Amino acid sequence: MADPRSTNGADDHAPLSAYPAARPDMSSIRTLRPQDYNEVLYVGHFYRKGQPVVMDLTGLSDADAKPLVDFAAGLVFGRQGDMDRIAHKVFLLVPPGVVING
Known about the structure:
The protein contains 2 helices and 4 strands, in the order βαβαββ. It has helices spanning 40-48, 62-79, and strands at 30-32, 53-56, 82-87, 90-94. A 4-stranded mixed β-sheet has the order 1-2-4-3, covered by helices on one side. A hairpin with a 2-residue loop joins strand 3 and strand 4. Helix 1 runs parallel beside helix 2 (62-79). The longest helix has 18 residues, at 62-79. It starts with 29 loop residues before the first strand and ends in an 8-residue tail after the last strand. Cell division protein that is part of the divisome complex and is recruited early to the Z-ring. Probably stimulates Z-ring formation, perhaps through the cross-linking of FtsZ protofilaments. Its function overlaps with FtsA.
C-alpha cells in the first residue's frame, strides 16, 4: 500500500491554488475609480470573480496611485492573470483565461 504522504506521484508538480478558479465573466468589464487604498478592495472583489476590471487612477497623485498599482499587480500575479496599462494611470486587469487583442 502506498504511503498517502508520499511525494512520488504524477501530480507532484501540479499548481496549487488557495482559491478555486473563477470562470471569466465576459458579460461586462467593470470600470472602477478608487479614490484611496480602502476602495481598491472593490477591484479585487470583481477581479477574483473572473471579471475584467479597468482601474482608473487619473484622479490620484502619483504617490497615492502607486500603492493601488502595487496591490493590483500582486492580485494579478497571484491569480495568474495579466495587467496592461491602457492610458496614463489607467490599467486593465485581465483574469486568467481571457485574451485581449490589440
